[in-house]
């Protein structure tokens, strides 16, 4: 601490980039110089940070001269080409894309779970996928106390995870349907895929492209990233990822089987009440449970609907909700930057 | 067959009642006399059936004189008081409420799964919960071939399951949010519960009221009804039920563990392709999978996203979608009536 840093934000005009700037401002992160970068297309955009106006510049290798921390969120191909250039110039890259997540020399970090992995970095630190982050933050306190064998998750994901234009499509399509006008889906479920489907008043069981094994890339991200972050290569993990007509806030129905079978619902609630970054919202008598509409703009992971499985003594069901642009992206990235400072790694 | 029946529809002005009339018309169900009944409040409403106008009458015990089949869908308390009166007068009641489902003398029937249970009826036949019906129709062909140990389901349920006024609330609330007007939720998640929440652009993890064990009544319905319909009191079943901003079409992310561990994805696909009442929609290369927007107005249960669990050889994941007002309610009820005719039970 005590030293103002030169921070670069790559993808400053995007949905996550905007949240990164807001989070840096909210956290009063000590910045001496701020460089805002984007693709050529968005360069020239004016952005306000702490009452000061900045002009977003096109990201090129030379943009990273003198930068201490570069927060990347401009797509995998931008990270692939420019993150190494930033590292070459002395920056630590915190990358919000999937480009380096499964690289064995790149730590994949959720500070509440594996902050210590930051010590082994080689210049790039990967920020996990949004849906992975909130799940591991919720189950890590339980794993620590009771061990963990198996995870089965079904997600309820918001469109903003696919960027600003996806959110725009949701609203314009919703409006068209309410007005009985024809719709022409062009973004959802995956902009770069062959077919596009109605997202308004619908559920699309595809996030990211399909892999050869029938799982989508989003599902494989949740499976592989969870094992890596928790250092449990043998952990059983399965995921079904679904896109819904919600702007922001991912929800997850999570089933876990623990090593031990003596945990009670009250034990789990107590653990989550004390867990960092987690807010327990669980009181059926008062109809208290997490919902996406309530989590927007908040940094925590919200957990509720905690139930013991009726058949297996080591089984529990949870409902996990978080702002996918904050803990799922911008806040986790800034939190990694804060951890780097705390550990004197920057 | 060959004999025109006197059919009564109780709850004829409701969301399901309307679908029952449409289904009876679509199926060209042989009706000699049609009696349309409702609460006192809705009595007097005019309803058209096969180009003929009917006036809906208040349901009273005497309404059932001479009725052969009475389709009930007017809430549990109406069924509780009037179904026995109908039976007393010689009618067979097909009840779409939860009033008699778990009664041990009442068969609970999904014709594709347990049509033979109709032989043991005592005047009342219960139609299962919407979310249960589509799930058991999808997994029964798999169970028959490979046995079944465990089911874990997370649902993505449409608002029309809560009636016409819930659908109205979704649309008026959505409109208000798009116009930046304040909203006042008054129906969702459960009209008769204490608190009401925004359903537009949100996900509410509560359907029906909470039970003492922390599960909702909807979740317990799925658990208990599945065991009863499949005649498997020891089957492991767990459910998490979630309401979403979708008018019609329930989706379900279903994980199953089979007795045998030698089934392949191709085997499961072949079984479902041949299964009655099921349409297989599963081709990742063509982004083909079931979605609620595509299932509306169709009678089948649509299954896709079939994947083998990556850790357990007997584990499979499915995505199951159906029109909750048709196979989930009206069509299954009419289908029971058709089965009764076919089996010469009416």
UniProtKB/TrEMBL annotation, chains A, B:
Q: At which positions is phosphate bound? A: 101
Indicate the enzyme's highest-level EC class. oxidoreductase
Catalytic activities = L-aspartate 4-semialdehyde + phosphate + NADP(+) = 4-phospho-L-aspartate + NADPH + H(+)
**What does the record give as EC number?**
1.2.1.11
Tell me the active site: 130 (acyl-thioester intermediate), 250 (proton acceptor)
Spell out the molecular function terms from Gene Ontology: aspartate-semialdehyde dehydrogenase activity; NAD binding; NADP binding; protein dimerization activity
- Could you tell me which PROSITE patterns the record lists for this protein? ASD
Tell me which family the UniProt entry assigns to this protein.
Belongs to the aspartate-semialdehyde dehydrogenase family.
Role: Catalyzes the NADPH-dependent formation of L-aspartate-semialdehyde (L-ASA) by the reductive dephosphorylation of L-aspartyl-4-phosphate.
Which protein is depicted? Aspartate-semialdehyde dehydrogenase
